[in-house]
Amino acid sequence: MTDPDKPLLRMQDISMHFGATKALNNVDFACKPSEIHAILGENGAGKSTLMKLISGVLQPTEGRIILDGRDVRLTTPRVAQNHGLVCMFQELSLVPDLTVRENLLLGAPGSGLGWLRSEALVKARDVLDRIDGGHIKMSARVSDLTLPSRQQVEIAKALMRKPRLLILDEATSALNASVVTKVFDLIRAERDQGTSVLFISHRFHEIEALADRISVFRNGKRVETFDNGDHSYNEIINMMVGQRIEELFPPKPPARADAQEVLKVENFSWDGRVMDISLTVHEGEIVGLGGLDGQGQGAFLMGLFGLLRTAEGKVTVAGKPVSVTSPKAAKQPDIALAFIPEDRKTEGLIQEQSILENLQLAAIGLKDLDASNPGLYEDTLERLELKHGGLELPVSSLSGGNQQKVVLAKWLALKPRCLLLADPTRGIDVKTKTQIYGMLRRLADQGTAILLLSTDYEELIQLCDETHIFYAGQLVSSMSGEDMTAQNIIAASLNVSEKRKVAHA
Protein backbone atom coordinates (compact mmCIF):
# COMPACT_ATOMS: atom_id res chain seq x y z
CA MET A 1 0.00 0.00 0.00
CA THR A 2 1.23 3.51 -0.87
CA ASP A 3 2.35 5.58 2.11
CA PRO A 4 0.51 8.94 1.73
CA ASP A 5 3.28 10.75 3.62
CA LYS A 6 6.15 9.28 1.60
CA PRO A 7 6.90 11.43 -1.48
CA LEU A 8 6.14 10.00 -4.88
CA LEU A 9 8.74 12.37 -6.32
CA ARG A 10 11.51 14.15 -4.48
CA MET A 11 14.06 16.61 -5.85
CA GLN A 12 17.09 17.08 -3.62
CA ASP A 13 19.69 19.89 -3.86
CA ILE A 14 18.62 20.62 -7.43
CA SER A 15 20.46 23.38 -9.32
CA MET A 16 20.05 24.34 -12.96
CA HIS A 17 22.50 26.80 -14.50
CA PHE A 18 22.36 28.39 -17.94
CA GLY A 19 25.80 29.96 -18.17
CA ALA A 20 26.00 32.48 -15.34
CA THR A 21 22.23 32.39 -14.80
CA LYS A 22 21.01 30.20 -11.94
CA ALA A 23 17.45 29.23 -12.86
CA LEU A 24 17.31 26.93 -9.81
CA ASN A 25 19.67 27.06 -6.85
CA ASN A 26 19.87 24.16 -4.34
CA VAL A 27 16.14 23.43 -4.43
CA ASP A 28 14.49 20.71 -2.35
CA PHE A 29 10.99 19.82 -3.44
CA ALA A 30 8.63 16.89 -2.88
CA CYS A 31 5.24 15.83 -4.23
CA LYS A 32 3.14 13.32 -2.32
CA PRO A 33 1.02 10.53 -3.87
CA SER A 34 -2.56 11.48 -4.76
CA GLU A 35 -2.24 15.21 -4.13
CA ILE A 36 -2.81 18.35 -6.19
CA HIS A 37 0.26 20.48 -5.56
CA ALA A 38 0.17 24.06 -6.91
CA ILE A 39 3.40 25.78 -7.93
CA LEU A 40 3.39 29.58 -7.67
CA GLY A 41 5.96 32.16 -8.69
CA GLU A 42 6.52 34.97 -11.14
CA ASN A 43 8.31 34.47 -14.46
CA GLY A 44 11.94 33.70 -13.75
CA ALA A 45 11.14 32.18 -10.34
CA GLY A 46 12.21 28.74 -11.57
CA LYS A 47 8.90 26.89 -11.68
CA SER A 48 8.96 26.18 -15.43
CA THR A 49 12.57 24.98 -15.21
CA LEU A 50 11.54 22.64 -12.40
CA MET A 51 8.75 21.22 -14.57
CA LYS A 52 11.15 20.70 -17.50
CA LEU A 53 13.51 18.74 -15.24
CA ILE A 54 10.67 16.49 -14.07
CA SER A 55 9.44 15.93 -17.63
CA GLY A 56 12.90 15.10 -19.03
CA VAL A 57 13.23 18.19 -21.24
CA LEU A 58 16.24 19.36 -19.21
CA GLN A 59 18.73 17.57 -16.97
CA PRO A 60 19.90 19.22 -13.73
CA THR A 61 23.35 20.77 -13.39
CA GLU A 62 23.46 19.36 -9.85
CA GLY A 63 21.24 17.34 -7.55
CA ARG A 64 19.13 14.19 -7.39
CA ILE A 65 15.69 13.28 -8.69
CA ILE A 66 14.16 10.50 -6.61
CA LEU A 67 11.06 8.56 -7.70
CA ASP A 68 9.51 5.96 -5.38
CA GLY A 69 12.60 6.24 -3.17
CA ARG A 70 15.05 5.48 -6.00
CA ASP A 71 17.30 7.81 -7.96
CA VAL A 72 16.28 8.22 -11.60
CA ARG A 73 17.87 9.93 -14.60
CA LEU A 74 15.23 11.54 -16.77
CA THR A 75 17.33 11.97 -19.91
CA THR A 76 14.46 12.53 -22.36
CA PRO A 77 10.70 13.23 -22.28
CA ARG A 78 10.12 9.63 -23.42
CA VAL A 79 12.09 8.31 -20.42
CA ALA A 80 10.05 10.55 -18.11
CA GLN A 81 6.79 9.33 -19.71
CA ASN A 82 7.90 5.74 -19.26
CA HIS A 83 8.14 6.53 -15.54
CA GLY A 84 4.62 7.97 -15.64
CA LEU A 85 5.69 11.65 -15.54
CA VAL A 86 3.59 13.54 -18.09
CA CYS A 87 3.61 17.29 -18.70
CA MET A 88 1.13 19.57 -20.47
CA PHE A 89 3.12 22.74 -21.10
CA GLN A 90 1.67 26.23 -21.47
CA GLU A 91 3.08 26.37 -25.02
CA LEU A 92 0.78 23.98 -26.84
CA SER A 93 2.60 21.03 -28.42
CA LEU A 94 0.03 20.07 -31.06
CA VAL A 95 1.01 19.87 -34.74
CA PRO A 96 -1.40 22.23 -36.57
CA ASP A 97 -1.44 20.37 -39.90
CA LEU A 98 -2.36 17.02 -38.34
CA THR A 99 -5.79 15.87 -37.18
CA VAL A 100 -6.82 15.58 -33.56
CA ARG A 101 -6.50 11.78 -33.76
CA GLU A 102 -3.02 11.96 -35.26
CA ASN A 103 -1.88 14.42 -32.59
CA LEU A 104 -3.25 12.26 -29.81
CA LEU A 105 -1.40 9.21 -31.11
CA LEU A 106 1.95 10.99 -31.54
CA GLY A 107 4.22 9.35 -29.00
CA ALA A 108 1.29 7.53 -27.39
CA PRO A 109 2.05 4.33 -25.47
CA GLY A 110 1.65 1.13 -27.41
CA SER A 111 2.93 2.43 -30.74
CA GLY A 112 2.43 -0.37 -33.22
CA LEU A 113 -0.06 -2.19 -30.98
CA GLY A 114 -3.49 -1.38 -32.36
CA TRP A 115 -5.53 -2.38 -29.32
CA LEU A 116 -3.43 -0.23 -26.97
CA ARG A 117 -3.69 2.75 -29.27
CA SER A 118 -7.43 2.22 -29.57
CA GLU A 119 -7.77 2.05 -25.78
CA ALA A 120 -5.84 5.31 -25.47
CA LEU A 121 -8.17 7.03 -27.96
CA VAL A 122 -11.20 5.83 -26.01
CA LYS A 123 -9.70 7.44 -22.91
CA ALA A 124 -9.06 10.68 -24.83
CA ARG A 125 -12.61 10.73 -26.20
CA ASP A 126 -13.98 10.25 -22.69
CA VAL A 127 -11.83 13.11 -21.36
CA LEU A 128 -12.97 15.46 -24.14
CA ASP A 129 -16.62 14.61 -23.52
CA ARG A 130 -16.26 15.26 -19.79
CA ILE A 131 -14.74 18.74 -20.29
CA ASP A 132 -17.27 20.05 -22.83
CA GLY A 133 -15.18 18.90 -25.79
CA GLY A 134 -17.87 16.71 -27.32
CA HIS A 135 -17.94 18.94 -30.40
CA ILE A 136 -14.27 18.26 -31.17
CA LYS A 137 -14.03 15.63 -33.91
CA MET A 138 -11.11 13.25 -34.10
CA SER A 139 -10.90 13.96 -37.84
CA ALA A 140 -10.67 17.76 -37.39
CA ARG A 141 -7.41 19.48 -38.29
CA VAL A 142 -5.89 21.14 -35.24
CA SER A 143 -5.30 24.34 -37.24
CA ASP A 144 -9.08 24.66 -37.61
CA LEU A 145 -9.73 24.51 -33.85
CA THR A 146 -10.14 27.50 -31.56
CA LEU A 147 -7.54 28.11 -28.85
CA PRO A 148 -9.85 26.74 -26.10
CA SER A 149 -10.50 23.59 -28.16
CA ARG A 150 -6.76 23.07 -28.70
CA GLN A 151 -6.23 23.36 -24.96
CA GLN A 152 -8.93 20.73 -24.36
CA VAL A 153 -7.16 18.39 -26.79
CA GLU A 154 -3.88 18.96 -24.92
CA ILE A 155 -5.55 17.94 -21.65
CA ALA A 156 -6.96 14.79 -23.27
CA LYS A 157 -3.54 14.01 -24.78
CA ALA A 158 -1.90 14.20 -21.36
CA LEU A 159 -4.49 12.11 -19.53
CA MET A 160 -4.68 9.35 -22.16
CA ARG A 161 -1.10 8.49 -21.18
CA LYS A 162 -2.36 7.45 -17.71
CA PRO A 163 0.20 9.50 -15.76
CA ARG A 164 1.31 8.79 -12.23
CA LEU A 165 2.35 12.44 -11.98
CA LEU A 166 0.57 14.95 -14.24
CA ILE A 167 2.06 18.43 -14.72
CA LEU A 168 -0.41 21.10 -15.86
CA ASP A 169 1.26 24.39 -16.84
CA GLU A 170 -1.44 27.07 -17.35
CA ALA A 171 -3.73 24.29 -18.56
CA THR A 172 -6.91 26.35 -18.17
CA SER A 173 -5.72 29.79 -19.33
CA ALA A 174 -7.87 29.79 -22.50
CA LEU A 175 -10.95 28.02 -21.09
CA ASN A 176 -14.18 29.62 -19.93
CA ALA A 177 -15.36 29.27 -16.35
CA SER A 178 -17.85 26.45 -16.96
CA VAL A 179 -15.23 24.32 -18.75
CA VAL A 180 -12.64 25.08 -16.04
CA THR A 181 -15.09 23.74 -13.44
CA LYS A 182 -15.36 20.46 -15.38
CA VAL A 183 -11.58 20.25 -15.86
CA PHE A 184 -11.15 20.68 -12.11
CA ASP A 185 -13.70 17.92 -11.45
CA LEU A 186 -11.70 15.69 -13.79
CA ILE A 187 -8.40 16.55 -12.09
CA ARG A 188 -9.87 15.78 -8.66
CA ALA A 189 -11.17 12.44 -9.97
CA GLU A 190 -7.71 11.59 -11.31
CA ARG A 191 -6.20 12.49 -7.93
CA ASP A 192 -8.71 10.30 -6.11
CA GLN A 193 -7.69 7.39 -8.37
CA GLY A 194 -4.04 7.81 -7.36
CA THR A 195 -2.62 10.40 -9.75
CA SER A 196 -0.46 13.21 -8.35
CA VAL A 197 -0.85 16.61 -10.02
CA LEU A 198 1.50 19.59 -10.21
CA PHE A 199 -0.58 22.62 -11.15
CA ILE A 200 0.80 25.96 -12.36
CA SER A 201 -1.58 28.91 -12.71
CA HIS A 202 -1.40 32.68 -12.33
CA ARG A 203 -5.07 32.76 -11.32
CA PHE A 204 -5.32 32.71 -7.55
CA HIS A 205 -8.97 31.70 -7.49
CA GLU A 206 -8.01 28.53 -9.42
CA ILE A 207 -5.28 27.70 -6.91
CA GLU A 208 -7.69 28.30 -4.04
CA ALA A 209 -10.35 26.08 -5.62
CA LEU A 210 -8.11 23.16 -6.59
CA ALA A 211 -4.86 22.79 -4.65
CA ASP A 212 -4.23 20.56 -1.65
CA ARG A 213 -0.77 22.04 -1.05
CA ILE A 214 1.08 25.05 -2.45
CA SER A 215 4.78 25.72 -3.04
CA VAL A 216 5.98 29.26 -3.72
CA PHE A 217 9.16 29.86 -5.74
CA ARG A 218 11.13 33.07 -6.00
CA ASN A 219 14.46 33.82 -7.70
CA GLY A 220 15.24 30.16 -8.32
CA LYS A 221 14.50 28.99 -4.79
CA ARG A 222 11.55 27.38 -3.02
CA VAL A 223 10.35 29.92 -0.48
CA GLU A 224 7.78 27.82 1.37
CA THR A 225 5.41 24.86 1.02
CA PHE A 226 2.11 24.89 2.94
CA ASP A 227 -1.42 23.51 2.96
CA ASN A 228 -4.01 25.43 0.94
CA GLY A 229 -5.69 27.88 3.29
CA ASP A 230 -2.74 28.36 5.63
CA HIS A 231 -1.82 31.74 4.11
CA SER A 232 -3.89 34.64 2.81
CA TYR A 233 -3.77 36.00 -0.72
CA ASN A 234 -1.77 38.99 0.55
CA GLU A 235 0.77 36.77 2.30
CA ILE A 236 1.27 34.60 -0.80
CA ILE A 237 1.75 37.67 -3.02
CA ASN A 238 4.35 38.93 -0.59
CA MET A 239 6.21 35.58 -0.77
CA MET A 240 6.21 35.73 -4.56
CA VAL A 241 7.19 39.31 -5.28
CA GLY A 242 7.71 41.13 -2.00
CA GLN A 243 4.55 43.19 -2.53
CA ARG A 244 1.14 43.30 -0.91
CA ILE A 245 -2.00 42.99 -3.07
CA GLU A 246 -2.85 46.69 -2.72
CA GLU A 247 0.62 47.50 -4.07
CA LEU A 248 0.04 45.54 -7.29
CA PHE A 249 -2.52 48.02 -8.59
CA PRO A 250 -1.93 51.75 -9.01
CA PRO A 251 -4.26 54.05 -7.03
CA LYS A 252 -7.38 55.25 -8.81
CA PRO A 253 -7.60 59.02 -9.23
CA PRO A 254 -10.94 60.74 -8.54
CA ALA A 255 -13.33 61.00 -11.48
CA ARG A 256 -12.84 64.10 -13.61
CA ALA A 257 -16.03 66.12 -13.98
CA ASP A 258 -14.68 67.75 -17.15
CA ALA A 259 -13.54 64.53 -18.85
CA GLN A 260 -14.48 64.50 -22.50
CA GLU A 261 -16.36 61.61 -24.04
CA VAL A 262 -14.01 59.53 -26.23
CA LEU A 263 -16.04 56.46 -27.21
CA LYS A 264 -19.81 56.17 -27.24
CA VAL A 265 -21.52 52.98 -28.39
CA GLU A 266 -25.27 52.78 -28.92
CA ASN A 267 -27.32 49.65 -29.61
CA PHE A 268 -24.38 47.60 -30.85
CA SER A 269 -25.47 44.15 -32.09
CA TRP A 270 -24.00 41.26 -34.03
CA ASP A 271 -25.43 38.00 -35.33
CA GLY A 272 -27.75 37.40 -32.36
CA ARG A 273 -24.70 36.90 -30.13
CA VAL A 274 -24.24 40.53 -29.09
CA MET A 275 -27.44 42.48 -28.47
CA ASP A 276 -28.07 46.20 -28.02
CA ILE A 277 -24.88 47.11 -26.16
CA SER A 278 -24.66 50.76 -25.13
CA LEU A 279 -21.84 52.29 -23.09
CA THR A 280 -19.58 55.32 -22.90
CA VAL A 281 -15.88 55.70 -22.14
CA HIS A 282 -14.41 59.09 -21.22
CA GLU A 283 -10.88 60.46 -21.21
CA GLY A 284 -8.88 58.94 -18.40
CA GLU A 285 -11.33 56.13 -17.68
CA ILE A 286 -10.59 52.44 -17.50
CA VAL A 287 -13.91 50.70 -18.11
CA GLY A 288 -14.11 46.97 -17.47
CA LEU A 289 -16.02 44.29 -19.34
CA GLY A 290 -16.70 41.25 -17.16
CA GLY A 291 -18.70 38.05 -17.18
CA LEU A 292 -18.09 34.42 -17.92
CA ASP A 293 -16.10 33.72 -21.08
CA GLY A 294 -18.10 33.52 -24.27
CA GLN A 295 -20.93 35.83 -23.22
CA GLY A 296 -20.34 38.29 -26.06
CA GLN A 297 -17.78 40.64 -24.59
CA GLY A 298 -14.96 39.37 -26.82
CA ALA A 299 -17.09 39.67 -29.94
CA PHE A 300 -18.09 43.18 -28.85
CA LEU A 301 -14.45 44.33 -28.81
CA MET A 302 -13.78 42.65 -32.16
CA GLY A 303 -16.83 44.37 -33.64
CA LEU A 304 -15.70 47.78 -32.39
CA PHE A 305 -12.37 47.22 -34.14
CA GLY A 306 -14.01 46.37 -37.46
CA LEU A 307 -13.42 42.62 -37.39
CA LEU A 308 -17.12 41.65 -37.66
CA ARG A 309 -18.57 42.75 -40.96
CA THR A 310 -22.25 42.38 -40.12
CA ALA A 311 -22.12 44.32 -36.83
CA GLU A 312 -24.79 46.99 -36.36
CA GLY A 313 -25.14 50.04 -34.14
CA LYS A 314 -23.86 53.57 -33.76
CA VAL A 315 -20.26 54.31 -32.75
CA THR A 316 -19.10 57.83 -31.92
CA VAL A 317 -15.43 58.73 -31.39
CA ALA A 318 -14.61 62.15 -29.89
CA GLY A 319 -18.11 63.34 -30.66
CA LYS A 320 -18.00 62.29 -34.32
CA PRO A 321 -20.02 59.37 -35.73
CA VAL A 322 -17.65 56.90 -37.38
CA SER A 323 -17.94 53.83 -39.57
CA VAL A 324 -15.36 51.25 -38.51
CA THR A 325 -15.44 48.78 -41.39
CA SER A 326 -12.00 47.23 -40.90
CA PRO A 327 -8.97 47.27 -38.60
CA LYS A 328 -7.22 49.49 -41.14
CA ALA A 329 -10.01 52.04 -40.75
CA ALA A 330 -10.05 51.66 -36.96
CA LYS A 331 -6.36 52.58 -36.56
CA GLN A 332 -6.45 55.70 -38.76
CA PRO A 333 -5.73 58.92 -36.82
CA ASP A 334 -9.28 60.28 -37.13
CA ILE A 335 -10.59 57.20 -35.23
CA ALA A 336 -7.41 55.94 -33.49
CA LEU A 337 -8.60 52.69 -31.92
CA ALA A 338 -6.12 49.97 -30.93
CA PHE A 339 -7.02 46.34 -30.17
CA ILE A 340 -5.00 43.88 -28.08
CA PRO A 341 -6.44 40.41 -28.91
CA GLU A 342 -6.88 37.55 -26.45
CA ASP A 343 -4.43 35.11 -28.06
CA ARG A 344 -1.14 36.97 -28.36
CA LYS A 345 0.66 34.06 -30.00
CA THR A 346 -1.62 33.53 -33.00
CA GLU A 347 -3.63 36.76 -33.23
CA GLY A 348 -1.20 39.36 -31.90
CA LEU A 349 2.19 38.23 -33.22
CA ILE A 350 3.92 36.40 -36.06
CA GLN A 351 6.12 34.02 -34.11
CA GLU A 352 8.81 33.38 -36.73
CA GLN A 353 9.38 37.08 -37.40
CA SER A 354 11.72 39.27 -35.37
CA ILE A 355 10.71 41.41 -32.41
CA LEU A 356 11.25 44.55 -34.50
CA GLU A 357 9.21 43.22 -37.44
CA ASN A 358 6.35 42.47 -35.07
CA LEU A 359 6.59 45.95 -33.56
CA GLN A 360 6.26 47.43 -37.04
CA LEU A 361 3.06 45.60 -37.97
CA ALA A 362 0.51 48.02 -36.50
CA ALA A 363 2.09 51.11 -38.10
CA ILE A 364 2.08 49.67 -41.61
CA GLY A 365 -0.22 51.74 -43.85
CA LEU A 366 -0.14 54.89 -41.71
CA LYS A 367 1.37 57.79 -43.68
CA ASP A 368 2.59 59.87 -40.74
CA LEU A 369 4.56 57.11 -39.02
CA ASP A 370 7.83 55.51 -40.06
CA ALA A 371 7.19 51.91 -39.06
CA SER A 372 10.83 50.96 -39.68
CA ASN A 373 12.17 53.40 -37.07
CA PRO A 374 13.06 51.50 -33.86
CA GLY A 375 12.91 54.79 -31.97
CA LEU A 376 9.14 54.75 -32.40
CA TYR A 377 8.93 51.97 -29.82
CA GLU A 378 11.83 52.74 -27.47
CA ASP A 379 9.88 54.70 -24.86
CA THR A 380 7.18 52.06 -24.42
CA LEU A 381 9.66 49.17 -24.40
CA GLU A 382 11.70 50.96 -21.75
CA ARG A 383 8.66 51.65 -19.55
CA LEU A 384 7.50 48.05 -19.89
CA GLU A 385 11.05 46.78 -19.18
CA LEU A 386 11.06 44.39 -22.13
CA LYS A 387 13.69 41.70 -21.57
CA HIS A 388 15.27 40.60 -24.86
CA GLY A 389 18.62 39.75 -26.40
CA GLY A 390 18.15 41.99 -29.43
CA LEU A 391 15.24 43.27 -31.50
CA GLU A 392 16.48 41.18 -34.44
CA LEU A 393 15.72 37.92 -32.57
CA PRO A 394 12.46 36.06 -33.33
CA VAL A 395 9.60 37.09 -31.06
CA SER A 396 9.16 33.39 -30.23
CA SER A 397 12.40 33.66 -28.20
CA LEU A 398 10.59 35.79 -25.60
CA SER A 399 8.61 34.61 -22.57
CA GLY A 400 4.82 34.92 -22.68
CA GLY A 401 4.86 38.09 -20.60
CA ASN A 402 7.47 39.74 -22.80
CA GLN A 403 5.58 38.75 -25.92
CA GLN A 404 2.54 40.54 -24.51
CA LYS A 405 4.68 43.63 -23.99
CA VAL A 406 5.56 43.57 -27.70
CA VAL A 407 1.85 43.38 -28.63
CA LEU A 408 1.15 46.37 -26.41
CA ALA A 409 4.14 48.37 -27.63
CA LYS A 410 3.32 48.01 -31.32
CA TRP A 411 -0.12 49.55 -30.77
CA LEU A 412 0.89 52.18 -28.22
CA ALA A 413 3.36 53.56 -30.79
CA LEU A 414 0.25 54.74 -32.71
CA LYS A 415 -0.87 56.82 -29.68
CA PRO A 416 -4.49 55.58 -29.77
CA ARG A 417 -7.42 57.59 -28.42
CA CYS A 418 -9.06 54.42 -27.16
CA LEU A 419 -7.40 51.14 -26.25
CA LEU A 420 -9.43 47.91 -26.49
CA LEU A 421 -7.89 45.06 -24.50
CA ALA A 422 -9.01 41.42 -24.36
CA ASP A 423 -7.67 39.74 -21.20
CA PRO A 424 -4.17 41.24 -21.64
CA THR A 425 -2.68 39.61 -18.51
CA ARG A 426 -3.88 36.06 -19.17
CA GLY A 427 -1.18 33.51 -18.34
CA ILE A 428 1.56 35.97 -17.35
CA ASP A 429 3.39 36.48 -14.09
CA VAL A 430 2.52 38.86 -11.28
CA LYS A 431 5.45 41.23 -11.85
CA THR A 432 4.56 41.69 -15.53
CA LYS A 433 0.92 42.17 -14.61
CA THR A 434 1.93 44.95 -12.23
CA GLN A 435 3.93 46.65 -14.99
CA ILE A 436 0.95 46.47 -17.35
CA TYR A 437 -1.44 47.80 -14.69
CA GLY A 438 0.85 50.76 -14.05
CA MET A 439 1.17 51.47 -17.78
CA LEU A 440 -2.61 51.38 -18.30
CA ARG A 441 -3.20 53.81 -15.44
CA ARG A 442 -0.51 56.17 -16.80
CA LEU A 443 -2.14 56.06 -20.24
CA ALA A 444 -5.50 56.82 -18.68
CA ASP A 445 -4.03 59.73 -16.72
CA GLN A 446 -2.70 61.10 -20.02
CA GLY A 447 -6.22 61.03 -21.48
CA THR A 448 -6.45 57.65 -23.20
CA ALA A 449 -9.82 55.92 -22.88
CA ILE A 450 -9.46 52.21 -22.05
CA LEU A 451 -11.96 49.40 -22.47
CA LEU A 452 -10.65 46.34 -20.63
CA LEU A 453 -12.11 42.84 -20.95
CA SER A 454 -10.91 40.75 -18.03
CA THR A 455 -11.70 37.32 -16.59
CA ASP A 456 -9.92 38.30 -13.36
CA TYR A 457 -12.38 40.03 -11.03
CA GLU A 458 -9.50 41.52 -9.01
CA GLU A 459 -8.55 43.50 -12.12
CA LEU A 460 -12.12 44.70 -12.57
CA ILE A 461 -12.30 45.79 -8.92
CA GLN A 462 -8.84 47.22 -8.37
CA LEU A 463 -8.05 48.70 -11.80
CA CYS A 464 -11.33 49.76 -13.41
CA ASP A 465 -13.36 52.91 -12.71
CA GLU A 466 -16.56 51.21 -13.89
CA THR A 467 -17.43 47.67 -14.91
CA HIS A 468 -20.12 46.27 -17.20
CA ILE A 469 -21.09 42.60 -16.92
CA PHE A 470 -22.12 40.55 -19.97
CA TYR A 471 -24.46 37.59 -19.88
CA ALA A 472 -25.84 35.79 -22.97
CA GLY A 473 -24.80 38.62 -25.28
CA GLN A 474 -26.32 41.43 -23.21
CA LEU A 475 -25.21 43.91 -20.58
CA VAL A 476 -26.97 42.81 -17.41
CA SER A 477 -25.17 44.96 -14.87
CA SER A 478 -23.11 48.13 -14.57
CA MET A 479 -21.31 48.92 -11.35
CA SER A 480 -18.78 51.37 -9.93
CA GLY A 481 -17.33 52.44 -6.60
CA GLU A 482 -18.29 50.31 -3.62
CA ASP A 483 -20.65 48.22 -5.73
CA MET A 484 -17.65 46.63 -7.48
CA THR A 485 -17.14 43.63 -5.20
CA ALA A 486 -16.22 40.06 -6.02
CA GLN A 487 -19.63 38.90 -4.81
CA ASN A 488 -21.52 41.35 -7.04
CA ILE A 489 -19.38 40.63 -10.09
CA ILE A 490 -19.72 36.86 -9.73
CA ALA A 491 -23.45 37.07 -9.06
CA ALA A 492 -24.03 39.30 -12.09
CA SER A 493 -21.85 37.02 -14.25
CA LEU A 494 -24.18 34.15 -13.33
CA ASN A 495 -27.20 36.43 -13.86
CA VAL A 496 -28.43 35.85 -10.31
CA SER A 497 -27.73 39.26 -8.76
CA GLU A 498 -30.63 40.46 -6.65
CA LYS A 499 -29.47 44.08 -6.63
CA ARG A 500 -28.42 44.20 -10.26
CA LYS A 501 -28.29 47.67 -11.75
CA VAL A 502 -29.61 48.34 -15.21
CA ALA A 503 -26.81 48.94 -17.72
CA HIS A 504 -26.76 52.47 -19.04
CA ALA A 505 -25.35 54.32 -22.00
From TrEMBL:
Family the entry assigns: Belongs to the ABC transporter superfamily.
Organism: Roseibium porphyridii
Superkingdom of origin: Bacteria
Positions of the ABC transporter domain: 9-244, 257-497
Keyword line: ATP-binding, Nucleotide-binding, Repeat, Sugar transport, Transport
Entry-linked PROSITE patterns: ABC_TRANSPORTER_1, ABC_TRANSPORTER_2
Gene Ontology MF, one: ATP binding
Keyword Repeat among record annotations: yes
Protein's UniProt name: Sugar ABC transporter ATP-binding protein
Lineage, opening ranks: Bacteria, Pseudomonadati, Pseudomonadota, Alphaproteobacteria, Hyphomicrobiales
InterPro entries: AAA+_ATPase, ABC_carbohydrate_import_ATPase, ABC_transporter-like_ATP-bd, ABC_transporter-like_CS, P-loop_NTPase
